[in-house]
Amino acid sequence: MHLSLEDLIAVRDGEACADSALHVSSCPECTAELNRLRSLRQLLAALPDEPPSRDLWPAVKARAAAERQRRAWIRVAWVAAGLAAVFTLAIGVRGAIEAYAEAKLARQAKTLVAESQRLEHALRASERQGQVMTGRTAGAVVQLEDRIAYVDSRLSRAGGERFPSQEIIGLWQERVRLLDALVSVETTGTTYVGL
Amino acid sequence: MPDCPTDCRTAVNLGPSAPVSPFVTAIGVVSRASFAVSVDEILLARARAGEEAALEELFRRFEAPVYSLARRLTRSTHDAEDVLQETFLEIVRSIRRFRGDGSLAGWIRKVAASKALMKLRRRQGRPFEEALPEDLGDDGPAVVSHVPAASSVVERVDLEFALGRLSDAARAVIWLHDVEGYSHEEIAAMAGKTASFSKSQLARAHARLRDLLAPGVREEPCT
Fold first, then answer.
1. Do B85 and A63 touch (CB under 8 A)?
2. How far apart are CA B37 and CA B105, in angstroms?
3. CA-CA distance, B131 to A61, in Å (whole number)?
4. 3-class SS of residue B205
5. Is the ipTM of this complex over 0.90?
6. What total number of domains does chain A contain?
7. Which of A79, B52, B80, B125 could bond B70 through an S-S bridge, CB–CB 3.0 to 4.6 Å?
8. Residue A6 and residue B199 in contact, taking contact as beta carbons nearer than 8 Å
9. Would B177 be classed as within a structural domain?
10. Would an 8 Å CB–CB cutoff place A35 in contact with chain B?
11. Residues B92-116: pLDDT tens digits?
12. Range of the domain at B186
């Protein structure tokens, strides 16, 4: 029983088991086949190289350059896309912050206007009672009313409470404070209101 | 050219007196001497830096072995030229990442072998192991030579012809294993197959070559 070709190749490559190697050493036919395999490998390795029939370096160089150019454009496109995304995000964030601030101011303005209306109502109720006041108290009332008129004129120029700004909020706060003091003077006859 | 009967086959005598390989390693595996190209550190460093002259120098040193390997595997001038271009595009693209822990020649050869195997798979559009010329039948002479006396040229022509009769898979495996010195595991990894597939293809290739190059046929002159 001779070794198979696969076994003989394994012997040739030094990968066979001991039994196979032992068999070859005692079998002339397998030894001859092994020698044939070795010789064939040597013949194959001795086949000469074939150089290409034309110079292919210019083509390789051109393709490499085109590839570099393409990669460069892709990098530029990515950078541009990244910048656009950052810009869009910044605008979006800024818009959101502004919207939040505007809403907050609108809520503050609405609260101050309501408080102002409540104090005016209280002031009218106090005036209806027709309470007699001293000269100093009347002077304080006039002073307060002048200052409220001044705040009102500034509010009128600034646009009222429809599109509130920090300045308008400040004016409304001032108006509420003055009205509160006026109500206090009207109802208690206090002459010193801390203005 | 005289007609040649089907039983008139000329083959080479592959006995122990066959020519000795140009390069045999200690374990007896033949390495392709043509890939034994030395590349000094300076040239490698210049190539890594992307210097065009250095890259061209590398191309000049390796174009013949790479083309030859591709030509052996694909048996097509056009495909071999493609493989040569694609191999060096890969080298140009990746040489900066080449760490130098293996030989540059070994890396280039592996890239070339992988590209050639890929080319075979794409070209065929069918499984790598599918039968090719070796199964076309035995009509006509397998190996024909009209030079009566054995000579190295005749042996070479016969061997080239016989290689051409192998299937793509068998030819690729016998070349990569017996000539380039790749192990079955390495061939399996490159071809996307198993080591057993590589071993069986190698045995199949040798069986076919033995039939095609059968000694004794030459004694019948083909006249």
1. yes
2. 7
3. 37
4. helix
5. no
6. 2
7. B80
8. yes
9. yes
10. yes
11. 999 998 877 678 999 999 999 999 9
12. 33-219
